[in-house]
Structures are given as structure tokens and as C-alpha cells.
Amino acid sequence: MKQIRVQKFIVAGFIICLLCVCIVLPVHALEASRADAKMERMMLFMQKGDFRQAIVNGTEAGTLYAQDGKIGDQIRTLIYLSQSYQSIGQYRKGIEDLKAALVLAEKTGDMAIKISVLGRLGNAFVLVNKLGEAENYLKEALALAGKEDYEGRASSLNYLGNLYVLQKKYDEALATFREGSALSGKTGNRLLSARSSANIAQALFQKGIFVDAETELKTAYEKYIALDNSHDKAYGLINIGMTYRQMAHVVKAGTDRFSSLALKILKEASDISLEIGDHLSASYSLGYAGQIYEETSQYQIALSYTRRAIFEAQQVIAPESLYLWQWQSGRIFRALSRSEEALSAYRSAVYTLQSIRNELLADCRVYNQLSFQDVVEPLYFGLADILLKSTDSISDQAVAQAYLREARQTIELLKTAELQNYFQDACVVAGKLKMKQLDVVSPGTAIVYVIPLNDRLELLLGLNTGIRRFTVDVGSKVFTEEVRVFRKRLEKRTTRQYLPHAQRLYDWMVRPLEPELLSSKIDTLVFVPHGALRTIPMAALHNGKEFLVQKFAMATTPGLSLTDPSPIRREGIKVLLGGLTESVQGFPALINVPTELKSIQELYTNRLLLNSDFRVPLIRQELEHTPYSIVHIASHGEFFENSGNTYILTWDEKLTMDQLEKLMMIGKFRKDPVELLTMSACVTAAGDDRAALGLAGVAVKAGARSALATLWYINDHTGYEIATEFYRQLQDPSFSKAKALQQAQLQLIESWRFEHPGYWAPFLLIGNWL
Fold this sequence. Notes:
Shape: globular
CATH architecture of the domain at 574-767: 3-Layer(aba) Sandwich
Number of helices: 31
Strand content: 5-15%
CATH topology of the domain at 574-767: Rossmann fold
Largest sheet: 6 strands, mixed
Radius of gyration: 28 Å
Distance between the termini: 42 Å
Low-confidence stretches: 1-29, 362-369
Mean pLDDT: 88
């Protein structure tokens, strides 16, 4: 079972005492008293783990302090608000509050406050995986703290060590944590000292030094257990318990011992939480204990703990915790063969997660080496799995179709969540969902969902007449390995080593569908791929006689609900052309780009931005003043695992996806999106699943109906050939974009020089295929 992340909630422990004055106070004094009362309530709610109520009271306190000009109290309130927002997964709101606190800290000239805010800002950026910005803030905090401010330096070092752990710089992390630990001892801050020891233990564990990690973990436990009962103490113990659980998974010789220690410490954490009325930490401690019992197949005990965890999460309306335990109960019910209860629990978990999608999914980051694929994806697949299996025993076709539609809808929800997570943007799909279009596809088009599950491959074929389900006896592990080998061998253009793999994948993904495709007179396939499948071109699958593209026009989409099904408007097409032919910023010249751009100029009304004219200000100017239907970019570019590193090269800078989105959405003409964004020449996804996810979502991110791009490095002469023929075919009103691309690829297949799929297959039409 995949490990579920442990969420740290770092809460300061100040106690605010209000003086009761039994006289009539002036208005400003009454306001001040009211603000202090709201602040006190905020602190009480934080200690109970009820962060939503803490935010309500803190927001009111902050407003009152601002009205009274109490900058110091404003800063303190903003810091606690930030901690509360981060505790419920709203990291970006937490960052906003800290930035506001930093502005106020600058005004006060209080260096200690500024150092504290800078350190917290750095840690907040660690939480959203923006490590460059995090490092800048933390190093500024350390520089200001110097050698004398022990408290500020120790705290900042602790945050910096967390950054190094995420970067897998374990030696630097250990040195940093140890320096911070030594300083925290000098300050007398026992909580900070305990955290430092726990962090040292985690870094040692990640480095594989298990004996030392266990020793340091014991030290951290002793430090935490000596503290007064509080929310911080409970969460510290939870983290220690979960580190022991990690060790039980890795250090096989000590599995039982470490599991027992984890359960013991989690029980202590739950006892403390219940004693102080901290429902949220009680929920996590009970839930994680249930998870350990689940992993050891003690399902009845696991279910008891999990139900208690659900109850505690409901007491403080904590969906970020609740969905974990609803999901966990679903897994336990499945193990107990209680199918109906399992389905109900999975549905509840997905519903709960959807309710906080904008808060949580865009910020889901790597934590203790876990990723989005570990902590969210299995939930959606689990629900889809149950729904699909349920249709085996349903004889009523109307009911079976309802289950198939729900399974497909679940996968669509996952696709939306994936893009939010990749682009680290909760709003990336806002206003772009077309859920009503799922049951309506264009004539001659079939939508293919490929769903790799642990024990089988599920295919959902969407037609105007309904959904057809096909099951293939190949598990996700074998399927993924085959996909990766196929991808690797496709790029070897001097061999035909790809062919057996192309045929095997065809047998798994297409051959079962052929009777339906033939009877429904399908000529266009739109694939909704997942994971490794996004890294390969479906066009290159082979049936033993011909490639799939020789039978069908094709497109791919990150999700049908994210695809605008409107056909391209043929009248008055205007094209904005941009590109580089000269060597810039260390990248080689693209010698075929002039010919490519010239050929497109001859076909459509256009504006050309070449070389030194291909700069962001001029691109912005053009898009502001002209309603371009097509934006064609012929330049170097690359998609990476981290969307922040993804770029398209302009004359003097690297254009990020965030910048591209802003450019494409500007101007008074942008009530309708750009019909097509083409990224020609050497735009490449590096071959891993996350990079390919970025490529798959580029049209959605950029606000275009569709995109034409490539999966791997190509000779830019091939790019010229494909792009030129694609635009020529697109002039034919009877050809969709998918068919135009098909014709361009068929032309290369017929050429002895470029018949190998390594040349023509990497071109993908993404999004709208009409």
C-alpha cells in the first residue's frame, strides 16, 4: 500500500491574556479589546486544530488591528493566518499573508520580525515546491540573522534543511539541521530543538543511515514527550510515529519492532489530542494507526480506528483529512469483500476531495518522497476500478451504462486534478470544463480511454450510441514496461526494433475495438491516455500490415471535458508566425525554419516575427491588437517534469508556460480562444510521464482549442515537411485538423527517406480535433 503523506502543521504557542477593565472604555480601546479577544479565540482554535474557525477569527482581528494602526499585531496575525491556511492545504493564500506581513515588517524596521517572516516565507515556498524562491528567502533570512540572532538563525536553518531534503542533498541537510539544533539549544526553545532532532532523523533515514536515524528519532521522541501537551506536541509525535512506519517498510529486519513503536507513539499522540480537544491531530493519529493495521491485514481493528478518524475530522470540518480516511475505509471494505460499502466510501472520498480541489490539488507536492501519483491518483483509479468491476454482474444495460459513465467521469476528474497539479495552478482549468459534451462526439469519431489497473487494462470506447467496455488481461506494470521500451526504440531511426512492441500494444489497445470501430464507421480516434502512455504516439501502433495512422486520423487530449468541441472557423484565418533561424542563447540555428514559415505565409494572412523581432513585447503587441486564429511558433523548447522549467525560446529569453498563458489570453479579441497553437521545430517533451503531461495540457494552459507539438527531438527539416503539408491540407473545408495531420504524416510515410515512425510519429494533435 502506498504511503499517505503526513501533513505538518507548525503552530506557535503564544498565550494572549486580555485585561478585564470594569469601566467604560473609549471606542478605540473597545476596538482594541475586541481585536485581542478575536486573536485569543484564533489561538484557541489553532490549538484545537480547527483552522477554519481560526481563520475566521484571525481575519477579523487583523482588520481591527489595521484600523487601529497596530502594525506589530497585524504582522503577528498574518503569520498565524498563514500557518492556518497552510494547515488546510491553502499554501498560496498562506504565502499571500506572509508577503503582506513582510511589507509591514519592512515598515517597522524590526529586524527580528523580518527574519522570522522571511524564514516562514522560504518554508512556504518549499511547501509548493518552488525551491528557487524558497532558497532566496531563506538565505536572505540567514544573512540578516548573522551569528548573533540564535532564534532567527536556528529557525531559518531548520527550514533550509527541509529544502535540502527535498533536493536530495542529504549531507547539506544534515549539516544545516545540526547547526540549527545546536543553536536551538542555546535559545532554550525546546519545541524548535525537538523539531531539529526529528528533521535530522528524517534526513538520516532518507540517506539510508538507519541506525543513526533510529538513535536520533529516539532523541526527538524524548524531547517531544517532555513538552507540555499541545497541538505542536501531538503533531511532532505523529511525525515521529510515521517515520517509524517508514522504517518498518524499508528496514525489513526491524519491521515488527518499528511498526509497534509507530503504533505506540501514534496512540500517545491521539491521547494527547483528545485530552486537549484537538480533533484534527486526533484524526491524523487515529487514521495513520488504522493505516498500519490495514497494511498488516488486521482489517477489523483498522476499520475501527479509521471510523474514529472520520468522526474526529468531521468535528472540525477538515476535508483535507476526511477524504484520506474515507478512502482508507473503502480499501478496507474491499479487502473484506463488502463491495457496496466500499463503493459508497470511495464515492464519499472523491466527493470530499473534489470539494477542496482548488485548495489542495494544485499544491499537492512531493513530501517525504511522495508525489501526486502516490497520494491522489490511486483514489480515482480505485473508484473507477470498483465501478468497472460492478458492471460484470449487472444485467440491466441502462444501469451498466450509468456505471460506465460514472467510471469515465471519475477518470475525467483525475485528468483535471493532474493538470492543476502539474501547472501548480488551481485555476488552469477554470471555465474550461465542458462536462455536457462527454456524451456527444462528432460523427465518425470515437473516444478511447486507456485505463491501466494493477491486474488488467480497461478500455472505454465512447461513441454517440454509448460507451463500450473492453478488458485486456495485462496488468499496469507489464503494460507500462512495454510502453517504455516502445518509446525508446521508436527513436532509433536506423532499426525496426520498435515493430514487435508496436504490434503488441496494438493488440492490447486497438484490436479489441476493431469490430465496433468498423460497424460504427469510425475514421477518427481521440485517445485520452494516462501515465507512460502519454509519452508515445498512437499513430505508430502497428497491426502487422500498416500503422494505425494509415487507418484512422488521430488526436490526443488530456481529458474530453477539457476539450472545446467547436470546429475550426475557416473564414478569415489570420496566423501569427514567430521563430528563430539564428543561433541564440547557446542554441543552434534552425536552418529550415525560414522555408517553413515562408510556405505558411503563402497560404494564410499572416504577421511574421523572426529572430530579433521574436520577443515577448512584440508578441504581446500583436496579440493585443489582432484576432489571430493560429499562433505558429518555430523555435527550440522543452517540457520538463516541473512546469516551472518548461519553456519556449524567444530571441532574448525563455518563455514559460505561465507567460505564454498570459500572452494568449490578452487583448479585446480573446473572448474566443486561439484555434490552434503550433510549436514546431525542436519542441520536445523529455520522455518522462510528467513532462508529457505538460505537453498534453499545453492547449488548456495556453487557452487554445488545440495544439500541434512533438514528443521528442526531431530534425527541423521533418518539422518543415509536416507543418507545411498540415497547413496546406487544413485549407480543405472537408478536412478536420486530425485528418489534415493524418495526410501530412501519410505523405512522409510514403517517402523512403522518412517512412520510419521516428520521423513522422512524434507530431501530436492535442485537444480539439475538428
